[in-house]
Amino acid sequence: MTADIDGVVTAIDAEVGQVVAAGTPVVRVAKAGDMDVIVGVPEDKINSIRQMSDLKVKLWANSGEVYAAKLRELSPIADPVTRTFVAKVALPDTAKDVRLGMTATVLFGMKNPMAMIRVPLTALFQEKNVSSVWIVESGVVRLVPVQIGSTSGEDVLISGGIQAGQIVVTAGVNLLKAGQKVRILGMESAPVASAANAAASAAASGVNK
After folding, report:
1. Residue 132 three-state SS
2. Looking at the domain assignment, is residue 40 inside a domain?
3. Among 114, 200, 180, 178, which Cα is nearest to 150's?
4. What is the DSSP code (8-state) at residue 175?
5. Is 187 domain-assigned?
6. Are 15 and 54 in contact, with CB atoms under 8 Å apart?
7. What was the pLDDT predicted at 22?
8. What's the pLDDT band for 25 if we cut at 50, 70, 90?
9. How many angstroms separate the CA atoms of 152 and 21, rounded?
């Protein structure tokens, strides 16, 4: 039996003495040369993956080395068990010390000249076909119209209207009014804890007396 390519035997699907029909796979061979990283893509990320051209691969055995890669193939149907779509990411010829069966991490990135801000869909406030978000400034909310870039799962990408670093309300947006005073959860947890400890200490002192 002779293989039509040079490579490494990865599996043997027949046993010694077994009678097989013509065309039945007997030996699996991994072709020598270029290698692929196989990764499962969730169904809600398929459309985003197709638009991404900036792919990076890091090997678990050598996490300090990052390789530029490219998407070679994306399965048109989902795996019946994992319900994910198999993507084959081709490693460059410069990738060294890569062995079959190694574990790798694939980083997908989209090159976009316009930086966008990701917020939850629950942050959007719709009124008269205008999309807006509530911004918190000095403890007071202000409604700001925004431009929607695209959606990604349960998040939305904002292409204009707000800036990085601003505080955006993500829950209860339909209950707010312009100029309403709000308190950000968690920012006063430390003072409250200190007051509670002081009260507890005072109560303990009273019991001792």
Report:
1. strand
2. yes
3. 114
4. G
5. no
6. no
7. 85
8. confident
9. 48
**CA 162-165-167 angle, 5° bins:** 75
Element (H or E) spanning 119, and its range? strand 117-120
Q: Identify the domain containing residue 72 by its residue range.
A: 34-109
Q: Is residue 141 part of a domain?
A: yes
Can you read off the two tokens belonging to residue 80? 């019946």
> Are both 122 and 99 inside the same structural domain?
no
139: tokens are 């403890």
Question: In this predicted model, which residue has the larger pLDDT, 190 or 156?
Answer: 156
Q: Which one, of 92, 111, 94, 119, lies nearest residue 173 by Cα?
A: 119
102 in the same domain as 45: yes
pLDDT-derived band at 10, boundaries 50, 70, 90: confident
Number of domains the chain is built from = 2
198-to-185, 189, 201, 203, 204 alpha-carbon distances in Å: 22, 14, 5, 9, 10
Q: 89 and 131 share a domain?
A: no
How many Å apart are CA 149 and CA 117, to the nearest integer? 9
Rounded distance, CA 109 to CA 54, Å? 5
Mean pLDDT of the chain: 80
Is 41 in the same domain as 105?
A: yes
89-131, pLDDT tens digit by residue? 888 877 777 877 888 888 887 665 567 888 999 999 998 889 9
- Is the domain of 42 the same as that of 98? yes
Q: SS3 of 43, please?
A: helix
